[in-house]
Structures are given as structure tokens and as C-alpha cells.
Design a protein that fits this description.
Blueprint (H helix, E strand, L loop, with lengths): L10 H22 L3 E10 L6 E11 L5 E2 L5 H4 L3 H20 L5 E5 L7 H13 L7 E6 H6 L1 H11 L5 E7 L6 H4 L6 E4 L11 H16 L3 E4 L5 H9 L4 E2 L12 H13 L1
Parallel strand pairs: 2-4, 4-5, 5-6, 6-7, 7-8, 8-9
Antiparallel strand pairs: 1-2, 1-9, 2-3
Helix pairs in contact: 1-3, 3-4
Amino acid sequence: MADMPEGAENPLSSAVVSRDKSTLDMVRDAIRHNQTLLAFQPIMQSVGPQSVAFYEGYIRVLDSTGRVIPARDFMPHVEETETGRELDCLALDHGLKALAHSPGVRLSINMSARSIGYQRWMRVLDRHLKKDPHLGERLVLEITEDSAMAAPELVIDFMDRMQKHGIAFALDNFGAGITKVSLFRNFFFDAVKIDGQFVRNIHADHDNQAIVRALTGIAKQFDMLVVAESVENPADAQFLISIGVDCMQGFLFGAPSVTPPWLEELRQKSRASA
């Protein structure tokens, strides 16, 4: 590519900046007009009768036409901004409301460690726990590996304070970043979620088999539940079961749905008994 004239604007860089600004504007508009919701995906037990261990709630925003936009299309643009913290607040609020309305459900919600010090996020959590002190016993907070390792003291202190509420914690994207084993043992994680890049097509990939075995071994050493993400075919599921993975999540068991799956299951049971 020829050198750009001095002072000239790179058209590719300009296009990227314009796209990022457009994405931020769309998300801010959705927050301003209360156009957000959760999509729910089941996390299945690996051993015994195939049943749901819990559900994960993913934040979604609606564009101006009402179209549902998945998190992967906007989260990288907002994760380190205040807009990202506002989305964490909304995800937590939606999730805790879902738990309050459905006493038999256990739900995990994603958050960044950056939100621990965000006062509005803590107010949302405190408000719901004051209404129902037992709500935390059915809540799992998923913290991404990179954000947890970036502020370990903050995360450890927060986990310690939340133990009295019965809140469980999962380390999301386990294996995707550089886990400091010397710090890892100091956390209070109840579960790890092995990053999907190591799980897809694992039955035929010997390198990923070795990685997932190692990650599973580390988690088991610390008595943590092991969840494999992005399970998409039966062959992968069988391999994961064979190495002792506790739970599995992915399109093999169901895509994220904005209609709570447990409500649909109740409707089906009601129709069957009618």
C-alpha cells in the first residue's frame, strides 16, 4: 500500500472509528429507551439423567427496528466504557427479576470485575437482596478471566463479602487468557467455564484435548465445577463426559432464547396434562 500523504486520514481507520461510534450510539439509545432484555441458554448436567443444572442469561439490546442484537456485536466496543457498566447493571437487574418471578430457577449472569466498584451495580444487587435475602442462593455471577486477573484483590474481597448471601461465582472464558496460578488458588470461584475455542470439534483435535484435560485437572484440584462452553455435536459431548467435565453448554442443547425456557417447559407440561 502506498504511503499516505502527511496529514491525510487513513480511510480504513476512519471507517473503523465510524463503525465503533455507530455501535456505541445504538447501545446508548437502547439503554436510554429501556430496550434491553436477557436471552437464556441451558447448562446441562453431564452425568445421569440429562437435566438442566442452571441457565445463563445473556444481555441483548434492541435496535431502532426492534431487532435483537447479540452481545458479540456490541460488547467488545463497550466493555471498558461506562456503557459497559450500565449494561452489567441491566443484566443483573433483569436476572434478579427473573429469579424473583421463578423460584425454582438458578441463573448465571455475566459481569466484568470493573463493575464491582461501580456504585449503581452494587445498588441493584443490594436492592434485590433486601427484598429477598435468599435470592443470592440461586444466583451465579460469571466474571471473565481477563478482568478477574487484572484486579485480583478487588475480586477476592468482593467474593468474600458476598459469601454471606450464598452467591456462587464462575470464572468465564477459562483458558483464554493467562491465569496466574499463584493467584488462582486465592479466589473463591465455585466453577470454571472452559473457553469454547478449546471445545469446538474437540473429539478430533488432540491439542485441544490435552488443553481441556489440563484445565479440567486444575479446576478439580480446587474442587470447582467444570463447565464446557460451545458444545455443538454429540461426539464432542461424549469426549467431555469421558474426561470428567461436569456440565455442558452449547447449541447441542439449545440456543439462547429471549423466551425463558423454563416457562415454555411449564406450558408444555400443562398442555400434556390437560
